[in-house]
Structures are given as structure tokens and as C-alpha cells.
Amino acid sequence: MTSSLGSNMFSAIVAAPFGAMGVRTSGGVLCELFYLPPQYESKPAEDAVAEQAAEQVQRYLDDPDFRFDLPLARVGSEYQRKVWDAICAIPRGSVLTYGQVAKLVGSAPRAVGQACGANYFPLVIPCHRVTASGGIGGFSNHDDETGFHLSVKRWLLAHEGVAGTGAPWQQQAMAF
């Protein structure tokens, strides 16, 4: 079943192997990216930034080594941006645990998880590369083991060459 329901909320919608990516732009910057379930139809870009974002999302989906270069809205708290910067430094094919990221930023694992869940730019800021110490962890403020969002996280990690979807993630975690 396809649906245009809600598509007017997005400046573009890009089909993805796990469903779709919604793109929201305003004032010449990317405001948000969203993981969308498969019932969303692709939607052509409404403006130049949406076109650029849609093209770059597609390039990442085709090549996990692609590096995004988009004009991003300045969003989030100073703390969230600090966590997001640490996450951006995790190379493709590697993961860190929430606890490891917390040590890097001088914080607590739960606060790191909350910053991950508040990420406005998934894929660009690869929060999928942050896992729990004993398994995959949550994703986009969801932790239903069989739900859509964790299936997206599993797809992204597999796409980037991280083997397995369960414990022990520490074997693949990046040393710091």
C-alpha cells in the first residue's frame, strides 16, 4: 500500500531499502531527516537544498563510504551538539557504546542515548553507530526489538559492514 498521507510535511521523500527518508528544509538549510516506513511514496524535491539532501541520501544508500556535505540548521543544545560531534567521528564499520561516547564527552550513557534520540539529521549524524554494551540498544527513541526503527538500525549497521545484530557488540567496538 502506498500513501501520500503526510507527504506535504516533507520537502522530499527518498525511497530506501528499509522504507524511505523524509527531508524537511526551510530557509536554505536542511532542518530534519526522518526514517519513514515503506508506505510513503517518493516525492521530488521542492527546493535546491531538498534536492541536494535527497541526492546525498541516495548516494549514501548506494555507498556507505559517502560523506555528507549539507547546510544544516543550527539545532540542539550545546551538550547535544557535543555528543553529535563525537558520534560523527566514529568511522563507518565501527560502533561505540553509549558508555564509551559518554566517557568521550564527560557525561552519562543515558544522556548520550537521549542526545542520540534527539538527532535531527540521522545518516548525516550516524547515531546508528552507537549501541548498548550488551546488544544493539535503542534507536530514534524506540527500543521495540521487532519494530521498524530497530530494523532500520540493523540495516544501516549491515550496510556499513558491522557484522551481527546482537551481543557482544564490544568485539566490534572501536577502541578509544
UniProtKB/TrEMBL annotation:
Q: Which residues form the Methylated-DNA-[protein]-cysteine S-methyltransferase DNA binding domain?
A: 79-162
- Per its record, what are the GO molecular function terms? methylated-DNA-[protein]-cysteine S-methyltransferase activity
The yes or no answer to whether the keyword DNA damage is present is yes
Which Pfam families would you find in this protein's record? Answer: DNA_binding_1 (PF01035)
Which Gene3D superfamilies does this UniProt record tie to the protein?
Winged helix-like DNA-binding domain superfamily/Winged helix DNA-binding domain (1.10.10.10)
Q: Give the GO terms filed under biological process for this record.
A: DNA repair; methylation
Alphabetical keyword list: DNA damage, Methyltransferase, Transferase
Q: Does the keyword Lipoprotein apply?
A: no
SUPFAM superfamilies noted in UniProt? Methylated DNA-protein cysteine methyltransferase domain, Methylated DNA-protein cysteine methyltransferase, C-terminal domain
- PANTHER family from the UniProt entry: METHYLATED-DNA--PROTEIN-CYSTEINE METHYLTRANSFERASE
* Protein name from the UniProt record: Methylated-DNA--[protein]-cysteine S-methyltransferase
